[in-house]
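Worked Example 4.2. Consider the chain below.
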Amino acid sequence: MSPLWAIRLLFLSLCMVGGYEITQVRPEWVQKPILGVIIGFGLGGLCVAIDEMLKGFSLRAFSAATFGLFLGTVAASLIDRSGLFPNIDTPTREVIRLGLFLGFSYLGMVLAMRSNKEDFSLIIPYVRFAPQYKVENKLVLDTSVIIDGRIADLIEANFVEGMLIVPRFVLAELQHIADSNDPIIRARGRRGLEMLTRIQQNKRNEVKIHDADFPEETLVDAKLVRLTRALDGKLYTNDYNLGKVAELQSVPYVNLNELSNALKPVILPGEVFSLRVVREGKDKGQGVGYLSDGTMVVINNAHSMIGQQVSVKVLSLLQTGAGVIVFADLKAPLAA
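Applying the procedure from the previous section yields the following structure tokens:
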């Protein structure tokens, strides 16, 4: 059970006790204590229902609504006292007064909630309030981007600015992976924990373990998207599908794989460079090597050069769903 629901149950219990106590001090209700308990439960349940409906209502929105209500009330009071209704009988005047206060209060609240902080300069001209705290970007890290580790390099190179948010459920998933019976999966989990320790040790960005959870969501990906939206942050991931789900829900995200592909050096036909041939290719006589960014290079007539450093000349490039494949010709072997 979440702490919020524990508080709600306590509140409902107090309302029921309060309803019972009221029946004991009212002579006409002494014989009906159950009715008092039911009424107390109903009122408490109504408050909880309103609380649930106002789940996305922030303190800033409440402040704006209160300010708008105040302005609407002032406007209605000025019109009511303006002398526009001198010869109207009392019942009709009360109806007009009720309409004025309800209408202007509603308009004031709606306009205030739709406004931004710059609009308030029209009410208090020439006054600007400097923020006491700098608003930081909130960067929510998922499991894949922590295990990958490149985010730690970006942080240390000062390419990432903002508060790093690691949800508690992501930490639990990392621990579960690190406890796996499969040695490969276990190694990935331990690498993720090591990368998280490295991220926490950096001095450039604050790292916060966030305790928010969404018990109604069973998938970690769904929890990540909801938490990022709730924090008004940005999701960092390597998961293509998670990124697309976030995009469909208008949640900003950064996919480090897409960033890496965008930063790969441009290779043009005719360019010459050296690399090590690591294995044979798919076709006869071919050798395969890899650039530092992981791009695969297929080299003609390099089967006999496996394990050696060679010089190659680019013939063509093939764009695939997984990236770019470079086709090259062997020029001359270099010293290993």
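Residues 60-129 form one domain. The two ends are 63 Å apart (CA to CA). Compare this with Example 4.1 before moving on.
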